[in-house]
Amino acid sequence: MARDKGRDTPGRKKREPKELRPREVYVLTEGEVTEPDFVEYVRAHGTPITPGRRVEVLYKNLNAPSKRRKPLPLVEEAIPFVVSAERAARKAGLEEENWNWPQVWCLFDRDQHEDIPSAFARAKKAGVKIAYSHPCFELWRLLHYQNYTSTFGGVCESAAGRLKQQPGFAQTYGPTIRSVSPERAKRVMPEQLRGRYEKARQFAEQRNAKHARHPDQTQWDPYTNVWCFVEEGLGVRDY
Fold first, then answer.
1. Per-residue pLDDT tens digits for 143-171
2. How far apart are CA 153 and CA 111, in angstroms?
3. pTM of the predicted model, to two decimals?
4. Contact, 136 vs 71, CB < 8 A?
């Protein structure tokens, strides 16, 4: 029996045109709960910068032990993904100027880590992108409620405590807010973020500008550039 012309060969997958391929974004996070929760919220509720462009998020350290979640080990683990992702992209005919050129991101905090400058230096050399918060990711969440300008002294509990005082945060947990466990407070709820992105981004940019000339990232207090990950990595302009 003659094969019908113009039909796909059974079992052969059609190759997607390179301009329609999604951007692969490799994500490695210091936190086990808050950052992945946040990423999934943005993916579900974000407004794309360019409608129709897809982003595929690939979490690469969801089950990593805590000792591998510190900034420098996180970056070291991310570097091979830059090499393999870019090799695959070139094979697929993509160029670095393409919007869907792959990206590798590390999301980590200042906390009390001593290897922050080394992590930044290694990341810059290897092409790993960083979303960094000082003292911790809770600052980014706090900026969705208010403009906070004072130093936290590197103490994350201070930022987390102020976050619990915000009206929207209390609405999420109700009258039990004072008894909310640290683990439960790490969960990112839609009510804490919805409709607040532009304000948080503006506040963060104002804070970050004050540290532009300081070479030591451990002194950037307070600081967060999570919005860069939202826009450059996830391709989202609002949520």
1. 999 898 888 876 787 777 788 778 766 66
2. 10
3. 0.87
4. no
